Amino acid sequence: ISAYTNAAYLDTLGTALSEANRWAEAIGPTEKAVALAAASGQEKLASQIQNHLQLYRAKLTHQPQPQENAR
Prior knowledge:
The protein is mostly helical. The chain is built from 3 helices and no strands. Helix 1 (about 5-20) packs parallel to helix 3 and helix 2 runs antiparallel to helix 3. The termini are far apart.
């Protein structure tokens, strides 16, 4: 994946892995994404990805979950 130099791509990979409940595998690229974003001065992106990382460590996804209709 772009020689692992694009934080957004690595974040997307982490998201895909978390959506497949592959939590341990999601953490590695997401940690790398945080580091890359921070190193390149993209603090807002680094913060967003750090939030994703915390969710993956708790085995949660950051994608909105569908809500059931109340009856």
